[in-house]
Specification:
Length: about 250
């Protein structure tokens, strides 16, 4: 079964990349990913450049797929423990693209939450590799899922915000600006928890990247959201740099 997963991981990863290539180059249902995002501009929408992080995510995942297929890694306990979860993440990713481009916000929200839950499992299963003496294991088994989970955490918040906005949710009487800042605080708490619990600065640095981009996008229309995003991101950045210094010392 281990050998089967090795090849299925490759096949499903390539399928996911192909779907994302189609959505980026030609669009699906006549719309690009960014065009759909522009249709639902909410207070937590990031600037367009933030989506460049997908390139880094897919490069890291490609590295993971290559490493997990190497004969020398077939006895790696972390890779063996992943089982079908990476395949499930590829399925959620690909089907979310179709739901997003078809402007089905309900289905896309369910799928991206499913993707996030799957990534949480993958993250926990690959964390032992983060403290491995082998740099390949640290950078191409553990790191990809730190970055991936960090970005999908933010993407889930955006998707949920769009869904509730389109559903007519009034935010319990709180303004959109207040909700945005509350979500930033929740993201900061998640970054602190992940940083302390798993000794991981990279998840939080992705949150910083996203919050800065949200601030850039909102500065012309909602300055209070911009200031909130940048203040919270500065706090997270300082915290993650402390965690990173600790990680560097422990891996020397």
């Amino acid at each position: 079964m281990r050998g089967l997963y090795r090849w299925l991981n490759i096949i499903f990863f390539l399928g996911m990349i192909f779907i994302n290539y189609l959505s980026g180059s030609q669009g699906l249902f006549g719309r690009s990913t960014r065009e759909v995002s522009d249709m639902f501009h909410v207070n937590v929408t990031p600037a367009g450049y933030a989506f460049l992080i997908w390139s880094a995510i897919y490069i890291l995942l490609a590295g993971f797929v290559i490493v997990q297929a190497l004969p020398s890694k077939q006895d790696n306990a972390v890779i063996r423990n992943i089982g079908p979860w990476f395949i499930l993440s590829c399925l959620f990713n690909g089907t979310w693209i179709f739901a997003w481009h078809s402007v089905n916000m309900g289905l896309s929200t369910l799928l991206i939450v499913g993707l996030l839950l799957t990534l949480i499992v993958l993250y926990i299963k690959t964390r032992p590799a983060a403290s491995d003496s082998d740099r390949v294991n640290r950078w191409l088994i553990a790191l990809p899922f730190s970055i991936y989970m960090g970005w999908i955490s933010v993407a889930s918040i955006v998707n949920l915000t769009i869904f509730f906005s389109e559903a007519g949710f009034n935010g319990f009487g709180l303004s959109g600006e207040v909700w945005a800042i509350l979500l930033f605080i929740i993201a900061a708490l998640l970054a602190v928890f992940i940083g302390i619990r798993f000794n991981d600065p990279y998840y939080g640095l992705v949150i910083v990247w996203a919050l800065i981009a949200i601030g850039v996008e909102q500065q012309e229309t909602v300055p209070s959201v911009t200031y909130g995003a940048w203040i919270v991101s500065a706090f997270i950045l300082i915290f993650e740099l402390i965690i990173m210094a600790k990680v560097v010392r422990s891996t020397r």
